Amino acid sequence: MTSNNGSTNETVDILVIGAGASGGAASAWLSEAGFKVKCLEQGYWQDPSKYASASADYEFEMMTNWAPDPNVRQRDEDYPVNDSASPVTPVMFNGVGGSTILWTAHTPRFHPSDFRVKSLDGVADDWPISYEELEEFYDLNDEVMGCSGINGDPANPPRSPRQMPPLPLGKDGKKLISGFEKLGWHWWPSDSYVNSQRYGEGRDACNFCGHNHMGCYQRAKSSTDLTYWPRALRNGAVIETGARVHRITTDDSGRATGADYIDSKGNEQHQSARAVIMAANGIGTPRLLLNSTNDAHPDGLANSSGLVGKNLMFHPFAMIAGTFPQKMKTWQGPLGNIAMSQEFYETDKNRGFVRGYTFQFQRSLGPAWIAKGGFRKPIPWGEGHHELLEKRLGSTMGMAVIGEDLPELHNTVDLDPELTDSDGIPAPRITYTLSKNSRDQLDHAIENAKKALEAAGASDIYVDPMMRQSGWHLMGTARMGNDPAGSVVDKWGQSHDVDNLFIVDGSVFVTGAAVNPTPTIQALALRTADYIVANRQDLKG
Fold first, then answer.
1. What is the mean pLDDT of the chain?
2. DSSP per position, 351-371
3. What's the fold here for domain 12-363+395-539?
4. In whole angstroms, what is the distance from residue 235 CA to residue 238 CA?
């Protein structure tokens, strides 16, 4: 894949920071409309033949060189994250495609109620937009990424047909589903950006190898290096990889003028632009904005509200796993793409908490992963090790709980006073505390997951009340809103303070819902790009 990686640094119309889920979507849409777009990405293009999923030692690779936690992976292009004051470890990937390289591609949408939490439940804030305003961009993103699924889910609004049928449930999936059927609880096949048949450019159907979250070597899983970026490059967009941005620059009036960065050879560079789009995720974006201080923006760029880096939301995960008497080869098939249940998604005040959670049905992996613990503690060495490994291997299934994490000001991303990346740029520091509401959600979900597993025939049930390495979803640190005093960007993702600075990643989320956020992030990015095309022709050179 050519990326036009030469760096002339002539002024571009739109400079995009980050080549992941949202950066790819915005770049493709804007370049198609004739804007001159350049993207700075601190990672690189990935070779699918070198993914963990392509290795005979895939389980070792998954835990080391391809670990989702940058503090474990420690590639040259990664930056460290101080997470010592958080029970949740942020996980992300730097490279073209961003974290869509290592995601499971489980892709449900937000519910309409997720945009109206304040009105409905008296907590947090309402979004300045509705589900209906975002729906056309959800549809557009599904078309580009390719969605496997099926209509008719009673827990969600009616919607346009998916591009492909749902992925097969499998014998193991049907076993988990039987528990929900016995209890009379909702379940539905997952929406997934994983091909169930040929779709897209040179992308075949999933072969059920079971490794899709480790980078899909056969390209069945959708990632933006395979979907949006080829379109953007054909439109004339440029990506410079190995480009580590450390500051968004502004002029005397406070408007964005581009970015300072360190290129792949270690040289200091400046890229000038008529507008800047931040797409560096819910940790990377506030990190850069807070590091972009100057006389006009002494507290960081776009931070007159003081909310840049505040209201960090994860989706705290609990995992409840059980062992079945049947051998079902549970290492085969996408890890988290069987089905989901939203029986307990909407608020029921009788439960003692607001909002709710999604159950995501989970397979397990191979022998090394099971021996290391899998969804539970490691199997002890010595007598009985092989017997217990044999019992669990191919028979372990899990219920992941994705609970809605409400925004709280004390959950933050700021700049660490000591820790830096390899170029001396301050690293982000996470301060996060699980709220009582989130803890009550998880506890309620754990008891219900036990019931479902037992009803399905599982025993030896183990509970991880909150997984530490589960910070896949980074949201809320540059929230959108109508009031500049209470938000960082407006409903179009445009900074209240800097009219040519936009944010299109999960930072802009007002609330987090109880589903994976990537389709919503991408839909918002497309909506912001559409706004720029329709209203900001002044940004074209």
1. 95
2. GSSSS-EEEEEE----HHHHH
3. FAD/NAD(P)-binding domain (3.50.50)
4. 9
Distance between CA atoms of residues 159 and 139, nearest Å:
8
Q: DSSP 3-state helix, strand, coil percentages of the chain (rounded to 5)? A: 30, 20, 50
pLDDT at 419 over 80: yes
Domain ranges (residues) in the chain: 12-363+395-539
Output the DSSP codes for 228-267.
HHHHHHHTT-EEEES-EEEEEEE-TTS-EEEEEEE-TTS-
Q: Do 466 and 316 touch, CB atoms closer than 8 A?
A: yes
pLDDT tens-digit map of 327-377: 999 999 898 999 999 999 999 999 999 999 999 999 998 999 899 888 888
Give which of 294, 245, 305 is closest to 479, Cα–Cα. 305
* Residue found under tokens 């995960």: 317
Q: Which two tokens stand for residue 485?
A: 């005093």
Task: Say whether 431 sits in a helix, a strand or coil.
Answer: strand
Backbone angles phi, psi at 142, to 5 degrees: -55, -40
Structure tokens at 532: 């720029």
Residue type, 42: Q
Token pair listed for 515: 């589903």
Q: What's the pLDDT score for residue 27?
A: 98
Residue in 74, 95, 23 with CA at minimum distance from that of residue 421: 74
Question: pLDDT for 118-161, tens place per residue?
Answer: 999 999 999 999 999 999 999 999 999 999 999 999 999 999 99
As a whole number of angstroms, the distance between CA 405 and CA 169 comes to 29
pLDDT value at position 314? 94
pLDDT digit string, tens, across residues 204-213: 999 998 888 8
Pairing of strands 396-403, 256-262: unpaired
Which residue, chain included where needed, has tokens 């998880």? 442
